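Quick illustration for those who missed Monday's session on complexes.
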Amino acid sequence: MSSVNNSRGNWSSKLGFVLAAAGSAIGLGNIWGFPTQTGLNGGAVFVFVYLICVLIVGIPVMVAEFTIGRAARNDPVGSFKALVPGSAWKYVGVLGVVTGLVILSYYSVVAGWTLKYLWRTLTEGATPHSAAQIAEQFESFTAGGIGPLFFHLVFMALTIWVVTGGIEGGIEKATTVLMPVLFGLLLLLVLRSVTLPGAAEGVSFYLKPDFGKISGDVVLAAMGQAFFSLSLGMGAMITYGSYLPQKEDLFSSAVYVSLSDLLIAFLAGFAIFPALFTVPGLRPDQGPSLIFLVLPNIFSQIPLGQIFGAAFYLLLAIAALTSSISLLEVVVAYFIDQKGWPRRRAALVVGSAAFVLGIPSAFSQGYLPLFAGFLEQADFLFGKVALMVGGLLICLFVGYRWGIAAAVEEIRRSNPRFRWRSVWAVLVRFVCPLAIAVLLVDRILGLFRS
Ligand code: PHE
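Prediction with phenylalanine bound:
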């Protein structure tokens, strides 16, 4: 067994691991999802509530996932099997693997849209278009069938290529190069945005909370966003933790990863809202179209818009890639560890399956009426409900079945002076499960309300 596990691959350093896990966390969820949710949920107040959710739910659950993975050194299914042999807990891992496959299938479709927009910005430049033309372009592209399918294919192929390279040579190498590039591009955009004439209004929308706007819905939206954005609840962090050498500290890693994720989401909002408020007639509560409709509009109206526009879509595509490789890795790790497949075969077969599964999503924006709304429904069921269920079960597993004592022993292997035991235990056993359960019930009731 141990010889099998030694050949699984490892991160070469703690920095490599933190960058890869941050790469998983930082994705469309940060740069697309976070500003969209902030715009819809009252601006600064959402940013504030989100911060609280990351601190009291996000970080503790991430520590739990890293700990499970490193203690068991296995894929999500194998991890539960190894820690409590012969129990039904392994189905939490199965749920994670299935969730990863489905999220990957539609994530790659949306990531494909970002490639298309990168291509379009580079080739067509920032020719001024009216808002109506931009909206029409977006609709005719996403509803077009073949275009979205082609870019979905290109994106999936890139993902497969990186994962085929393995842990150190593929994922770690790609993320260590891509993450700093992403950070640099984002800073550039923030600078451009806040120096535009008239940016102050957007800055104040984003930073001055109106606490009168806090509501149950805002809190629930923030929590759901935190889960997706931190890649929690489906074993991505269990899988990444399983390649972490025993000497590296789990707790500080989780803190670094969560805070980088938070920082990038925060900067993404900073790049978008100040610019948005400088264009008359644009509103922050556009919903999901914010990135594809509002931004091209902004880019077509600001100096050097083509360069900033291309930088933005490149950034988005990079962020999406470092996340999609983690989605694929979860399923690939399952086939390597549980079924003994070679990595290459696992990456190819699973990636192709995710491509096929993504076809209805690629056709879901109007091309084939049969698939209308497919992407949104898959995202609701898997990107929201399934992640919550997984996260809840992971807390219950660590809090009550495997046990806080065993988990803390694993954490102390690399950090003998770990001082957060009691705080973490209270969060994992009571606060997080309760908060997630409330969110879940709300999501499910929401189904009947709409
Ligand atoms: N966290 C990624 C994002 O923000 C998405 C993701 C979710 C990746 C779950 C892996 C697991 O885009």
